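Customer escalation, tier 2.

The customer says the design service returned an amino acid string that "doesn't look like it belongs to this structure." They asked us to rerun it and document both sides in this ticket. The original structure tokens are below, unchanged.
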């Protein structure tokens, strides 16, 4: 039987842009397993789990995860990493896609993997989405946010 760390390292391998095996990635999870993209408030369950991979790979087809530190603590594996790639696909937003810029991203992240009997029960991904957005030239629009807050406060 593979160790918890080996299972997690295999998950990362299957999520690489040059491999991208959604079915293989899904097979590493328990039947009721979840993939939680915490900063973006998205949860993928069961057969939705591969969508998390294909969605990101559609934006960054050469996606790579550089694992900086991997620590197994019983049934929990903690990973510090950098998510890297080139912005070559449309980036969906609520008001339309950000067109590809060709810019490179190098986004810091930390992942917590919770395993049960040799399968991934829960995967919590904490990524610095704000860093990635700045790297592709989509920095937050603070002016509009301030104006909206002021309008809400005054009721005008």
């Amino acid at each position: 039987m593979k160790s918890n760390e080996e299972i997690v390292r295999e998950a990362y391998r299957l999520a690489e842009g040059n491999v991208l095996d959604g079915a293989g990635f899904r097979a590493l999870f328990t039947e009721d397993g979840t993939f939680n993209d915490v900063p973006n408030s998205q949860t993928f369950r069961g057969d939705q789990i591969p969508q998390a991979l294909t969605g990101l790979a559609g934006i960054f087809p050469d996606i790579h995860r550089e694992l900086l530190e991997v620590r197994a603590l019983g049934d929990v594996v903690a990973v510090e990493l950098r998510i890297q790639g080139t912005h070559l696909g449309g980036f969906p937003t609520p008001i339309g896609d950000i067109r590809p810029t060709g810019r490179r991203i190098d986004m810091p992240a930390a992942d917590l993997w919770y395993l049960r009997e040799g399968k991934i029960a829960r995967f919590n991904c904490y990524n610095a989405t704000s860093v990635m957005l700045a790297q592709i030239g989509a920095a937050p629009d603070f002016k509009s946010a301030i104006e909206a807050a002021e309008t809400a406060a005054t009721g005008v």
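Tier 2 assessment: The sequence is consistent with the input. The chain has one domain: 4-154. The first helix runs from residue 4 to 14. Sent an explanation to the customer and offered a walkthrough call.
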